[in-house]
């Protein structure tokens, strides 16, 4: 058996990790013998150009990695996707929203192309009554606000067991209220910086209205950080970018902000009673990318890891960690089952080729030849063992 390259791979990547995510796709695709047409995010064109120049300077032949710049739907991205309909692509890899991923999946499907779709998430983090609260608060805070919640693996709902709910909420709010926001290039102590673009910021702004309409309780947060709406732990000029207050809600399953990905510095606290309800609530969103549980009860940890519908699970760790040697990807609305990272990524950019060669000089009818072996009486165990 042999692995063969698929051919020409189309790629579209998001802008939140403009080097890491493209690397997960470009490097294994090229190592497997494919060529690539890549449209990076229009949030990071210069960085993408410089990244590809490194391949060129390292000696990669011209035409192996080809970069096209532009927008998404109704622009360069749509042109690239529709190359599948013209028979010019043999594979497509995409990281981005579930809505766009569904469309790419439809185009790939009608052309019998197996795409790699890494899509959105609304990742649950469960804190059980026996958890190390200091560790759980630190992990939940980092899962919610690292990189401003602008990761597909950022926590969306923190699901807390009833006996510790009030104490966890107190500690988590205390930690959140001390979060440092600003320009991380000038101030290394900053936890997160601005929004990637205005589109993401506007959607984040809208979620305040969702919460009010659904009856969620706003515990902390006041929208955009400006000179007129200052945040006490902001470093830099708030008018130099689109910055948001770290925002905490109390929410329930069924609310829009409980179910939808927001992609910003916002987190929901959800109260449950026991491990069974925690798993039920953790599974109550359309997504299934990352998940986490904080507990020292091994049976609860086991129940969670077998009951959760997610591509990745951390026990006593955050939702945002992605181990390079493990498969990365989601289920449900978070992906189509494709896996990146680790050895599993090679499956995405190759196909299996089975070869057999006959040396007998006679026609061999696979699964049809009728040569028989005469059975013999079984050999006694004593004889086999030499007794």
From TrEMBL:
A molecular-function term among this protein's GO annotations: oxidoreductase activity, acting on the aldehyde or oxo group of donors, NAD or NADP as acceptor
Residue ranges annotated for the Aldehyde dehydrogenase domain, each copy included: 1-354
Keywords carried by this UniProt record: Oxidoreductase
UniProt superkingdom: Bacteria
Record-annotated active site: 118
Similarity remark: Belongs to the aldehyde dehydrogenase family.
Listed name of the protein: Aldehyde dehydrogenase family protein
Organism: Thermus tengchongensis
Organism lineage: Bacteria, Thermotogati, Deinococcota, Deinococci, Thermales
């Amino acid at each position: 058996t042999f692995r063969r390259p698929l051919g020409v791979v189309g790629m579209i990547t998001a802008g939140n990790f403009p080097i890491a995510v493209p690397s997960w796709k470009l490097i294994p695709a090229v190592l497997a013998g494919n060529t690539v047409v890549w449209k990076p995010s229009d949030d990071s064109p210069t960085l993408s150009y410089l990244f590809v120049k490194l391949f060129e300077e390292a000696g990669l032949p011209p035409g192996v990695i080809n970069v096209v710049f532009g927008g998404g739907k109704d622009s360069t991205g749509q042109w690239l996707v529709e190359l599948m309909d013209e028979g010019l692509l043999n594979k497509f890899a995409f990281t981005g929203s579930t809505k766009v991923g569904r469309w790419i999946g439809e185009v790939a499907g009608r052309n019998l192309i197996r795409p790699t779709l890494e899509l959105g998430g609304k990742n649950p983090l469960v804190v059980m009554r026996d958890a190390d609260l200091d560790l759980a608060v630190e992990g939940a805070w980092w899962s919610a606000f690292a990189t401003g919640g602008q990761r597909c693996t950022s926590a969306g709902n923190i699901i807390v067991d009833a006996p510790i709910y009030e104490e966890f909420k107190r500690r988590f709010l205390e930690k959140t209220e001390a979060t440092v926001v600003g320009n991380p290039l000038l101030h290394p102590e900053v936890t997160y910086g601005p929004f990637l673009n205005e589109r993401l910021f506007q959607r984040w702004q809208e979620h305040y209205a969702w919460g009010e309409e659904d009856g969620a309780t706003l515990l902390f947060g006041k929208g955009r950080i400006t000179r007129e709406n200052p945040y006490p732990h902001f470093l830099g000029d708030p008018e130099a970018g689109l910055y948001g207050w770290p925002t905490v809600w109390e929410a329930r399953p069924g609310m829009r902000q409980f179910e939808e990905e927001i992609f910003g510095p916002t987190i929901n606290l959800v109260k449950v009673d026991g491990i069974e309800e925690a798993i039920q609530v953790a599974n109550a969103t359309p997504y299934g990318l990352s998940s986490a549980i904080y507990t020292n009860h091994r049976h609860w940890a086991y129940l969670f890891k077998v009951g959760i519908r997610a591509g990745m699970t951390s026990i006593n760790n955050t939702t945002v960690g992605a181990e390079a040697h493990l498969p990365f990807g989601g289920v449900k609305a978070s992906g189509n089952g494709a896996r990146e990272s680790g050895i599993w990524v090679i499956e995405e950019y190759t196909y299996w080729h089975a070869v057999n060669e006959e040396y007998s000089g006679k026609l061999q009818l696979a699964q049809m030849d009728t040569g028989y072996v005469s059975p013999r009486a079984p050999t006694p165990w004593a004889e086999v063992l030499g007794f």
